[in-house]
Design goal:
This protein is 27% helix and 23% strand. By secondary structure, the chain is α/β, with parallel strands linked by helices. A hairpin with a 2-residue loop joins strand 9 and strand 10. The structure holds adenosine-5'-triphosphate.
Length: 326
């Protein structure tokens, strides 16, 4: 009888640690009209250096997701779920430690409409310098500020100027540079190209692409699906506070599964060929969104079952929250 070779069984198997893990995240805001359930059971995972694109119609919870990761929800609360970075829970951490070690240092955010967040009475240099000071940066401040400015294609001379002396595109680059000052591992960019002309948009996209190549991870939040295909490794399509579909960019763009993703992709204008489509109806209210599929009353494939909560049906690289793929 052949002798069986002994296989060494490792004592404990630990799967590779995710760079960022968001699990079952639900967030709500208290309003006069009732509690707005802005996020419901949202989850995804990123490896080191990976980037995620989040797309969806207005008010579906995109910014709330970014703000929850930054622990900067105003008037909102986390009802359930977990967020961890390299295995460390961000939600259980004392605010003091999160603020000293994570917010702006390891995770930073470029806010929606960030151009207007620059303080008009201070030069770019004093605003950058304040960020470094607040985080106890002890190296060569001027060198770091110049490095951040040039990394976004701004002349170091811009540091001496006031915000009103800069064009819209330059301001957007300045706030991007400010988010990069402390060399974070993750940058959450909320609509980084909205309100910019197409040339400046292209510059910002190229800049994000370059930073990604150098190892920075991004979560890019946008209405505009076409910019995601260039930067995101993974895409999450949000609808009514939930992720309707999650997968690699290749799969989500190449073979979209959820009828909402299909509708959204069909609505991107094309240079030639058929007219862009549109999705009839409007998104659900988030105060009492109901227990069935949130897309049901707009869905071309609606079935009886859709009145109950759809499962997260596995796809090649993620899932589609839809009864069609049960
Ligand atoms: N501070 C707040 N207080 C009360 N409700 C809020 C607050 N912030 C967001 N909401 C509500 O939460 C829901 C999700 O908002 P959120 O800003 O996350 O959506 P979004 O997808 O980023 O929208 P947009 O694309 O228009 O920026 C919306 O119904 C919004 O009205």
């Amino acid at each position: 009888m052949p002798r069986l070779r002994k296989t060494k069984i490792p004592q404990e198997y630990s799967p590779p640690m995710a760079f960022l893990d968001v699990e079952g995240l639900s967030v709500s805001y208290g309003t006069r009209a009732g509690r707005v359930h802005a996020l419901d059971d949202v989850g995804f995972s990123l490896k080191e250096g990976e980037s995620l694109g989040i797309a969806g119609e207005s008010a579906c919870g995109k910014s709330t997701l970014g703000l929850a990761i930054m622990r900067m929800l105003q008037g909102g609360r986390i009802d359930s779920g977990a967020i961890s970075m390299r295995g460390e829970s961000l939600l259980d951490m004392a605010e003091r430690r999160f603020s000293a070690e994570y917010r702006w240092k390891r995770i930073s955010m470029i806010f929606q409409g960030a151009m207007s967040s620059l303080d008009p009475v201070y030069t770019i240099r004093s605003q950058f310098s304040e960020v470094l000071r607040q985080h106890g940066f002890e190296g060569d401040r001027e060198g770091r500020m110049e490095e951040a400015a040039t990394s976004v294609g701004l002349e170091p001379g811009v540091l001496g100027r006031y915000p009103h002396e800069l064009s819209g595109g330059m301001k957007q680059r300045a706030v991007t540079a400010m988010a990069l000052l402390l060399k974070p591992d993750l940058v959450i960019a909320d609509e980084p190209t909205t309100a910019l002309d197409v040339l400046v948009q292209a510059q910002i996209i190229n800049l994000l692409k370059r930073l990604k190549k150098e190892g920075t991870s991004f979560i890019i939040i946008t209405h505009d699906l076409s910019i995601l295909s260039e930067i995101a490794d993974k895409v999450g399509i949000m609808y009514g506070g939930q992720i309707a579909e999650l997968g690699s960019s290749e799969d989500v763009y190449g073979s979209p599964r959820h009828p909402y993703t299909q509708g959204l992709l069909a609505s991107i204008p094309k240079l030639r060929g058929e007219k862009p489509g549109y999705i009839r109806g409007s998104p659900p209210g988030l105060i009492s969104p109901g227990s069935g599929c949130r897309f049901a009353d707009r869905c071309p494939d609606v079935m009886e079952k859709c009145s109950t909560d759809p499962p997260k049906a596995g796809t090649k690289s993620g899932y589609a929250k839809c009864w069609l793929y049960e």
